[in-house]
Amino acid sequence: MPRRTAPAACPIPRRPLAWLAALLLAGCSDAPPQALGTLEWDRIALPAPAAEKIVRVDVREGQRVAAGARLLQLEPIRTEAELQALRARAQQAGEALAELRAGPRTEQLAQARANLAALQAQAADAQGYYARLQPLGRQRLVAASDVDRARAAAENAQGQVRAARAALLELERGTRPEQIAQGEAALAAARAQAAAQTATLEKLDVTAPRAGVVDSLPYRLGDQAPVGAPLAILLVGEAPYARVYVPEPIRANVRVGQAARIHVDGREGALRGRVRTIRSEPSFTPYYALTGDDAARLSYLAEIELTDEAARDLPAGLPVRVEFPR
């Protein structure tokens, strides 16, 4: 019997495949430029004004709060005591300034005049004794050392008289303007320190500076955070924004105010937005924004403001893809 030969396989035409690949490449080339990133909200960190223990927490994470609402409270005992001490110091400086402005008392002036009169009498007695001793010394009836001591005592008495007269004159002329200026400066410094401590005491009641959502409370009831540590972090603003990394090849076509379409992971459809800022200095693309050839290129950090009403309830941290229509 003659052997049957298997039918030859039909050759697959290669031209349609090449045409399809060219069509796909053409479609890819028409796709709008895009950038990857995450959804963010404006954040406000409220630092600890003092290293005090947290004695009260009024909110929870994820809670929406109004501007001025109290978030938590720190222990005020030590701050109140320091404020009282500073207020007492300011009062002391104020009384010292009032004393300088009032000048010397009449009793002080009377005492200075009486002291001057007493010294003048002592000086006259010393001068008379020296005058009586001088001729005896010339006649060598007394020792020369006695004459010298009498002369020194008379001169010393005259010096005390001059000092007492100058002290009386100082009291009569009153307080110098420079001393009053120093007293005013000391009072102003004491009051400023008390005012600063008052502000610190008020900050122990940590309140929301703007309306927003409590994103994080790093410390719990009873914790003692160091000065400057964030006690609460708020998400504020009317709507979130997309923080994306614009690849270097399309940077020249992206500008502030330009319209954009934002695709949020897990949400159908695109949201409208516009470019509000873009950095002028490039940075290396982070790992989650690497796509194809962009892995070896620089990128520019940009912020895309979402203008859709539907974007106001979106949480932070969601991956987004932003397209810039041509």
From TrEMBL:
Signal sequence residues: 1-31
UniProt feature coiled coil, ranges: 83-174
Pfam family, any one: HH_YBHG
Bilayer-crossing regions: none
Annotated localization: Cell envelope
UniProt cross-references to InterPro entries, sorted A to Z: HH_YbhG-like, UPF0194_transport
A cellular-component GO term for this protein: cell envelope
Chain ranges of the YbhG-like alpha-helical hairpin domain: 84-197
Keywords: Coiled coil, Signal
Protein name: HlyD family secretion protein
Organism name: Vulcaniibacterium tengchongense
Organismal lineage: Bacteria, Pseudomonadati, Pseudomonadota, Gammaproteobacteria, Lysobacterales
